[in-house]
Design a protein that fits this description.
It contains one helix and six strands. The protein has one helix at 6-10; strands spanning 22-27, 30-35, 39-42, 46-49, 61-64, 67-70. This is EGF-like domain-containing protein.
Length: 84
């Protein structure tokens, strides 16, 4: 009689040992947690959006769809950048 280990391996992610906003994937014989795209943090305790408002971003960056992106307004040579 043979048994399948594939189903048992998937049990490593059910219930998920990962935090919120994460993916759980089985690699070998262990569960590996990663943050969802555009999320940052510790995947074991939970991931959060990269940003929620412009003030969470570095200078010359803006928050769009929870992502910190460079937001430049090119005016001409030697011009400065500003969030748009």
């Amino acid at each position: 009689m043979q048994t399948s280990c594939a189903g048992r391996a998937q049990e490593l992610c059910r219930p998920s040992p990962c935090g919120r906003n994460t993916n759980c994937q089985v690699q070998g014989e262990r569960a590996v947690c990663t943050c969802l795209p555009n999320y940052v943090g510790d995947p074991l305790t939970g991931c959060r959006p990269e940003c929620e408002r412009d003030s969470h971003c570095p200078a010359n960056f803006a928050c769009q769809n929870n992502r910190s992106i460079m937001a430049c307004d090119y005016i001409g040579l030697f011009s400065s950048m500003r969030a748009v």
